[in-house]
Amino acid sequence: MINNLKNITKCSCGHTIDDPMIVAKTKYSKWGWFLLSMAFSAMPKEVVFQCQQCGDIIDTSTDPDVLEKYRYNSDISK
Length: 78
Known about the structure:
The chain is an alpha+beta fold. Helices cover 18% and strands 22% of the residues. It has helices at 30-37, 64-69; strands spanning 22-27, 46-51, 57-61.
C-alpha cells in the first residue's frame, strides 16, 4: 500500500514518494508480458516506486486502485 503521511519513507538520498525523482514502475506476469507483446494493454501485478537517482525502492503496491492508476505507465520494471 502507498505510504500515508504518518509513515513517510525516504530513499538513501532523501527523496520521498511525492518527489519528482521517484518514479512508478510496473511489473507484469508472464501473461501480462504476452499481452503487451501483442500490442494489448495488461493490468500490472505490482507497482514499484523507485528513486531515479540512487535506485532505492521507496514503496510497492498491489492495490487494485493503484494498479489501475498506473496501468498505462510506460516505465516497466522486470
